[in-house]
Amino acid sequence: MPTNADYTRDYFQIIDELDGAIEGRRAAFAYMMDSTAIVHHEVVASSFVPRLFNQRTYDVMKHTAETCHGILCKVIERYREDAAYRKNFDFDERLVELICLPRDYDAVLPFARVDTFLNEDDYRIHFCEFNGDGSAGMNENREITNSIKSSEAFRAFAENHRLLGCDLFDPWVRAFMDIYATYRFKVENPRVAICDYLENGVVDEFHIFAERFRAAGVDCAVVDVRDLVFDGEVLRDGDGKPVNAIWRRCVTNDVLQFWDESQALIDAVRARKVALIGSFAGHIVHDKQLFEVLFKPETQAFLTEEEIAFVEATVPMTAFLNEDEVNLAQIRANKDEWIIKPTDHYGADNVYAGCEQSQEVWEQLIDRYANEGAGYPFIVQRYIRPFKTDTLPPDAGILDMPDGAVRSEPVPYNNLNGLYLYNGHFQGVFSRLGPYPTICKQNGGMTAATIWVDCDNPDGVPVA
Known about the structure:
Helix content is 34%, strand content 21%. By secondary structure, it is an alpha+beta fold. Helix 1 packs across helix 7 (152-158) and helix 2 (22-33) runs antiparallel to helix 6.
């Protein structure tokens, strides 16, 4: 079986034969500049070269994602049922109450993206973090795929391969409505709201999902949580229209930040007058202290032997960055082995890999964040070195460059693969890459289209 690197080398050979594929790259860049792949008012950075994945990659990712989902659901349900088990987590008391509210539908974890590091030589895989209802990136993948699929380079590669993309929109609409069909208090023709604090959300993506709901015959609106109104019986949006089901895109730390302004939503959930898909219990997945809890005897007591082995093989050692839990001197002295991050933030906020820091800066970071020095808890995690892939960096400026100034040589970038789960079913991948160990927008990160090559993937959609 060809490796992913074999496919990428073939793709670069085509680019070379096309003298850098400059015309196609300019067209792809122009497409992206006019696209809806916008995060916080900026078009996302992207690569002309897709991530090309073989059958073994698909099989490993699917097994990893779906096994992980089963474990996460067990943890969520045990937390909700067992007050003693809750003591393994350090959550705000307001969150504890929200997590334990009745759900009234079958799905425990409706929507998730588990971010992974895959070694594409030996196919070992490790988790970076888990993301629940606030997971994004679906529209980035769609738009970047659209930007390259009509290029001469992509078409030439497709002449010798069967290529499939990730279908990340309509399958979620179907999964959402299937979940709602199990809701204890369901109504005919429910009206759906996609809810977030919109200044924090990926709003263009929300509106595309709303269009797909409407195309499926479901009335759907994008709504700011703070605009909801509840009269004790009916939850309504800012236009006064009823809301029967919510796709919760807001992360729970934002709910706490806007607590007073969010009471209509919270009261409606308490009163069991709206289906909140997913429930606030998704916070258990979002909070990074879960990595530590997975290793505790109280958790392993209800996992199977196979699940325990899976956790040990895929979850890096994690602990609170507190002197009563870890040897801070060892962490200071061995910076390249560790990464520190807040337990409950998102968007790579305040994430620091020791290998990126000087010894002096690393020690300053430990002093600043250890023992909740910043006012909120940090974790320390064994650093997993990302796998590098040859790619092309974003073609910024290519529309104005002379042909001779356009670089076409492969550049090695680090990889981070986000595996989407729609009600426990592996649906696709959010492929992010970056030139530095911490892969994020602030660190020169970019997104690439995910393409399955010659794969038996029943969920893939033809792209060429």
